[in-house]
Structures are given as structure tokens and as C-alpha cells.
Amino acid sequence: MSNDAAGFRLISTSVLAYRIVVPSSAILFVGDILKLVDHDKDFTFFAKVTDITHDTAQGEPAAGPTLAVNLHPLGLIDHDGRFRPPMTAPTNFAEVSRPDDADLEFLKQSMGDLEVGQMRAGLGILEGVTVSLPSETLSSHMGVFATTGMGKSNFMKVLCASAMRLRRFGVLMVDPHGEYVTGYRLRNQRIKGLIEYTGARDGLSVYSTRPPDERKRYGLKELRLEHDDFRMGDLGFLYELSLPLIEVVESLDSHAGSDVIDFFINEGVDSLPSPLKTTSGIGRHPEITDTLRTYALGPLHMTQRRVETVVEENRVFFHRFGSSIPSILEDLAQNKVVLIDIPGVSERGELFALSTMTRAILNAHKLRTLSDEETSHQQVLIAIEEAQRVLAEANQSTQVFRECVMEGRKFGVGLCLVTQQPKNIDPRILAQLNTYVVMGLADQQDRSIVAGNAKQNLASMNNEIQTLPRGDAVISIMGTPFPVSTRIHLFEDYLDRLDAAS
Length: 502
Description:
Layout: E1 9-14, E2 17-23, E3 33-38, E4 43-56, E5 65-77, E6 83-84, E7 95-97, H1 105-109, E8 114-121, E9 124-133, E10 142-145, H2 152-166, E11 170-175, E12 184-186, E13 189-191, E14 204-208, H3 212-218, E15 221-222, E16 225-226, H4 235-238, H5 243-252, H6 257-267, H7 286-292, H8 297-313, E17 318-319, H9 325-333, E18 337-341, H10 347-371, E19 380-385, H11 388-391, H12 399-407, E20 413-419, H13 427-430, E21 435-438, H14 444-453, H15 462-466, E22 472-476, E23 484-488, H16 491-501
Parallel strand pairs: 10-20, 10-21, 11-18, 11-19, 14-15, 14-18, 16-17, 19-20
Antiparallel strand pairs: 1-2, 2-5, 3-4, 3-7, 4-5, 5-6, 8-9, 8-23, 12-13, 21-22, 22-23
Helix pairs in contact: 5-8
């Protein structure tokens, strides 16, 4: 853009809104960042284009058709070179231009260490400004919000690749479709998987339900959960339970999972003595027998069927003995990315596996923190795909995930909520997130919910978020002075660059 003040004029300002006039032939886009140099005050202001409308050059008909450009102030650089919030306004007719990489040096200094993309301005990118998340803040939770097809999976793979390279925190992610591990082919295009990042392969650990020959071919471990990993409370979010069933489930939640399963599978509720008899509990599990004998048979039979279904549906990885969880915890303690690769497993099985591992991770981190171990500072990020399934406002039974959101940061456990429906997430949960990655939301209610809960002002970027192209994002990061428009790296290109540098 020209610096000619006669052609590009700042004609109206307030502390929270600027307006410039440019010739109608000027090429500007929503999301462009502009620099306004105020020579009178010796301040340099930065602002983002939020809207463009046709206008008539005020008082100068000969100037020809013009565009009125609305800007949202981002901040200013003062006399000492420090970036500050926009607490004053530039004078009218301040010089308007596009910033270069040197102008945005202050932004580079506020970035983190977990690279995800490059800063975008309008349709272009600023090659010299790499966008990186601060790994030390991930236990404060993050949200990834995007409609289908906008690049959520690509972003998560880029995030994991950077985590594999850095090895400064652990990541747990359940992959129900097998797309993150080995990749896939889409319309004659090869979409790569994380195991193809050979330069940091030791930073990835995969637990899989695939057949033994496939696991051997790709270097994957067998995924196993054992009956003692199960808790009766897990039924609360795997199924919709009536009040009588909830009472039964809660009465058994303190019992070991293996005992509960053994009772329902091998003894059954029909073996219970009559509540009218004084006989104490019988069989291998007398405490369970005494607990259940006073309940009606209807809810007990329904509970038994639910337990039998959990065991049967998940038999590919759910066994009486032998759990992968100790090995998973060790991998996470070594700051690895742990993928739970379960193609073909039902949605209920996916949630069962995720909740079981989340509970184990949270409990392990609590113990480390309370015992003041040297590893108590270690962080883990747990990714939850389609997070509205377990963190909806109406669903209060997913206690382990809610506990992670409310208390996890104290123990170094953060959640990454991935969803295309943020309006269906409990607002109290959204309010706990400190990093927002917004990759295009067509629904106005979704955009309003996200903007209303973000720690930085996203409301002014409503038009930009609505028109984001695939693969681009608006990222609100703790520590940066304003939300950053970002071109997320294409995973395949990023992988090639990382491998070439290793």
C-alpha cells in the first residue's frame, strides 16, 4: 500500500475503532494488518481490517470512488519501543502502510516454542513471523474450533509433530479412524501419518488394536486395558441411565472393576439372596452381594446387561489382566506423543478408553504433586475429539473430564477440546480455556460463544473468522498482545522441512 496520505487517509478514530479511506482500486482484505505512523505523537499504531465498504471521498468529489475501511486497533509502540495496548488514538491523516517483518519484531518475542504456522495478513503470509504456542501453558487447556473440512486434523498432526520434536510435554490422543498414525489416500493424494516423521520417531508411541502383523510392520504396541481399569461410574457417560440405575452404579463405584465385572459376568444378579433373609453375602464377592440385595431386580438386570455390553463390545482391547496404562504413563513422563490407534472400535469404546486413561493420568499427576516428586512439573495434554460428547452442559456424568478442566492445571494436566460445535460445550468449561484455535465457524451462535469466552477480543474478528479459508486459523495465545491470524503449516510440507533439518 502507498504511504501517500492524500490517497490513504485516516479520517476517523476512537480508542477502539479506526476508519481509513482508500481508492476503490486498492487491494485490501479483511484480516490485513496495517501500520499507522503518528509523527505528531511519535507513536506507531497497528490495526486490523475488519470490514470494507464503498464510500465517497468526503469533500473531494474529484478524488473518485473510494473504499471506507474499518480497522480494529491492536496496540501501539511507544517512544521506548515497547508494545502497549491501544489506550490512545492516532491523529487524523496519520501515515498508513503495510508493516514488514521488522515492524512485528515485538510479536516474535512473545511467541512460544511449539510451532504451528506462519502469521497471515489478508490473503498473504508474513514469512518472517512464525506462530508458536507456548508449551508451558498447555496445562491451562486449549480449544480447537472448526467446522468439518477446515483442517482440524491437519492442525492436530502439526501440533503433535512439533511436540515430538520438542519433547517438553506429553500428548495423549485417541485416533478412532487410524488417520493420524499411518495416513491415508484422498483423491489420489497421499496424506501422511505421524509415523512418517522419522527424524523424531522416538518421540512417538502408538498403542493399537490392529492385527499383530500390522503392528509389527509399523512398530506399534498392543493396546490392552484390564478389568481393574474399569469403574462402575464409567457407565454414567457411556449410557443414559435412569435414576434407579444411577443409584446402583453409585453404590458400586468404590469396588474394584475386576470384582464388579466378575460378579455380573460369572455370578449374576439372579444369585443374590432374598433381602428378607438374614443370610450375609455369599459367593466370591460378599460385599457386592450385600450392597445389591436390597435393590429391585429390574435395575439390577439392566446394570448387568450394561456391564456385559462393555466387556463384549471392547473385547479387542479389554481383558481380565494386562494393562497398557503403566507403559502409557511412562511414555508420557518421557514427554512423548502417545496415540491410541483404535480403528473399527465403536464410539462408546473410544470414550471408554479415553476416560479410563484420563483418570489414570490425572491420578498419577496428583500423586506426583502431593509427594513433591522431581517429575511433578511434567505436563500432559489430553486431546478430546468431538468434545461436546462428554462436556455438554446437560451431561454432568463425565466427572473425570470436568475434574481435569477445573483442577487439572494444578497437576500439569491440560485438555485440548476439539469440536465443531462449541455452543454445545458447557460455558463453564469454555471459560477455563486459555488458548483458542478458531478455524472457521459458519454458525453465528458458535462464533459468539467462542468470542464471549476467549481471554482476548475475538468479537472484532467475526467477519474474518466467518470467511477464513481452509487451513487458516485465528489463534488466541496466552502471552501474545492480540489474537494472531495464522496459516497453519500443511503437515506434509512441515514434515519434509523437519526431516530435512534433522
